[in-house]
Amino acid sequence: MLVLGIETSCDETSVALVEDGCRVLGVRTFSQVKSHEKYGGVVPEIASRIHVNVLHYLLEDLFQEIKIKPDDIGLLAVANRPGLIGSLLVGISFANGLAFCWNKPVVGIHHLEAHIYGAFMEEGKQPQYPSVALIVSGGHTQLVQVDALGEYTLLGNTLDDAAGEAFDKVAKILGLSYPGGPVIDKYSQVGDPGAWSFPRALLEDSSLAFSFSGLKTAVLYAVKGYGRKISQTSSTIPERMVKDIAASFQRAVVDVLVIKMERALEKTRARSMIVCGGVAANSELKSAMHAVSNRKNVPLFLPPLFLCTDNALMVAGLGWHKRHQATSFILETYSNSPINK
Ligand code: KG4
Ligand code: ZN
User: Fold this and answer.
1) Is the pTM of this model over 0.85?
2) Ligand 1 binding pocket, CB closer than 6 Å
3) What pLDDT is stored for residue 204 in this prediction?
4) Which CATH architecture does the domain made up of 127-302 adopt?
5) Does 2-116+307-325 match 127-302 in CATH topology?
6) d(CA 241, CA 223)
């Protein structure tokens, strides 16, 4: 069955065609980064308007390449939770409109569940359960026990910022571009991760929760301290210092994610591990998680770059597995939505 996926939960507008959950026919993703970068973060109103403007162009373009007719599509799958509510509503309205015109069923997809699914969809087979999934994106940082597709237990959540959000905010403090993750990743490769001693929060007990706001504040004080040393008003930091702070910050984030992942694997006696979401694109996190996988002898599922950040492929792929929940239109959408409900 051919599924048309639609993803508009944040600042990526994406449509994709996937057959039987894993065979990728095509995808079109429009990144809105250029429109949000001057604000240093996503502006919800702008995001919604851009989704409205580009969705139908992406779909037309995709249809032209794949040369299919609406009749070839068996199901529409659309991310309906969690996310920016205005953005989600654009995707859902688009999906409902197509479902009505084409007389096709439509299914609502949990965006975080789609990230988890994206980690193994290319393989065409599911990981061994129980699995531990670390979801690290711009809006979420969670550890989830996965007992089957659709069966989740939340093990730990962030108490404040998400990991990706911390990358974005720290990049802003350092005067780097938005989104912060890729640029900090790049600077870290030429910086000294031991140059600055930044805090690793919530390590002392057996907690699986996360906190990144103290780390972000520590970076802010490091930069402010330097500004005070050279002049009250200066805001430019030497290139060397930017690289070292980026590398030391990234090391602190990766250290915490690794320790918590290891804890979660032990606690659940997991038979596989998953790392997904935009921050899963981080080169240091990837190699650290491969090392965990080898140390613990637990297979790692980590999506390729195009499936890490937001995309409609993961939505279309998961949609096929949820086809029995499809209806003629979608009413429900939530900005917050626990993955285990
Ligand atoms: O999953 P995603 O595309 O959107 C949300 O669902 O939030 O994740 C976006 C986040 C951004 O915060 C971005 O800075 C981060 O993923 N990111 C990275 C990297 N690439 C993207 N963080 C660290 N290293 C990267 N290479
Ligand atoms: Zn996402």
Assistant:
1) yes
2) 10, 137-139, 164, 167-168, 179-182, 185, 277-279, 281-282, 309-310
3) 83
4) 2-Layer Sandwich (3.30)
5) yes
6) 9
Q: Which two tokens stand for residue 131?
A: 């699995």
Do the beta carbons of residue 78 and residue 108 sit within 8 Å? yes
Domain range annotation of the chain: 2-116+307-325, 127-302
Give the model confidence (pLDDT) of 234-285 as tens digits.
457 899 999 999 999 999 999 999 999 999 999 999 999 999 999 999 999 9
Q: How far apart are the first and last CA of the chain?
A: 27
Strand ordering across the sheet containing 131-136: 151-157, 141-148, 131-136, 272-276, 300-301
Q: pLDDT for 34-73, tens place per residue?
A: 999 988 889 999 999 999 999 999 999 999 999 999 999 9
- Counting Cα atoms < 13 Å in the Cβ hemisphere of 178 gives 21
Q: What residues in the chain have per-residue pLDDT under 70?
A: 227-235
The DSSP bridge pattern shows strands 141-148 and 131-136 to be: antiparallel
Distance from the alpha carbon of residue 103 to the mean position of ligand 1, in angstroms: 36
Span from the CA of 32 to the centroid of ligand 2 (angstroms): 14
CA distance 223 to 109: 41
Q: Determine the Cα–Cα distance for residues 141 and 136; give it in Å rounded to an integer.
A: 5
Tell me whether the omega of the peptide bond preceding residue 127 falls within 30 degrees of 0, making it cis: no
- Which residue in this structure is represented by tokens 């639609």? 6
Residue whose tokens read 């239109």? 329
Superfamily of domain 2-116+307-325: ATPase, nucleotide binding domain (3.30.420.40)
Looking at residue 41, its pLDDT comes to: 87
Query: Atom 3 (ligand 1): residue with closest C-alpha?
Result: 309
What is the distance in A from the centroid of ligand 2 to the CA of 156? 18
Gap between the Cα atoms of 97 and 93, Å rounded: 6
Strand pairing partners for 136? 141
